[in-house]
Amino acid sequence: MAQTAQHDVPAVGKAESILAAAKRAFLAAGFGAVSMDTIAREAGVSKATVYAHFGSKEELFGAVIERECERYFDRFSAGELDPRDVRASLTILGRRFLELVLSPDAIALHRIIVGEVTRFPVLGEVFWRAGPERERVQIEGFLRSAAAAGALTLPDPRFAAEQFVSLVRADVQLRQLLRLAAEPSDRQIEIIVEGAVGTFIRAFQRKPS
Asked: The CATH number of 68-204 is which of 2.40.50.140, 1.20.1050.10, 1.10.357.10, 3.90.180.10?
């Protein structure tokens, strides 16, 4: 077992180098203009090594999106989200979501997808599965736990998760994408999330019987 682990380390290191190189390349030139050869050179590996880790450029792009999401959503501790304390937990989720979608890299990647999805239709599905759908599943999972704990009444947990995301996003992401506003301050994000969470709880909080 120890011998296997030693052999795995270089492979993991190469995968991380490829992901970092791909992210830099995509952000600099977009999706269509970047080749796997370019990414291999940037990562300091062979093109065969890139394909050994990622079967296509689309798969690699999806992995870059997934990694961005992991930076924000995969770092919760076990006790950070409490189904019985819906307001505090949704505030955490809402803030993490906004921090993700408003980060400079996420905004840049979103612009790439919008600009190139007509020429590369598969990008839409890749992005949706790696980003928005993954986030929705995580939020829906918490909402189901809160409903099971008796804190919320949710006729349709999936739709409720989509509604929560829409409330949190408001128009702030679109304004960023269109370069109509500067990146919001921490206080502005706090105000947006507080308003979204309050509206959501008023709509779905379990009423006393």
From this structure: 1.10.357.10
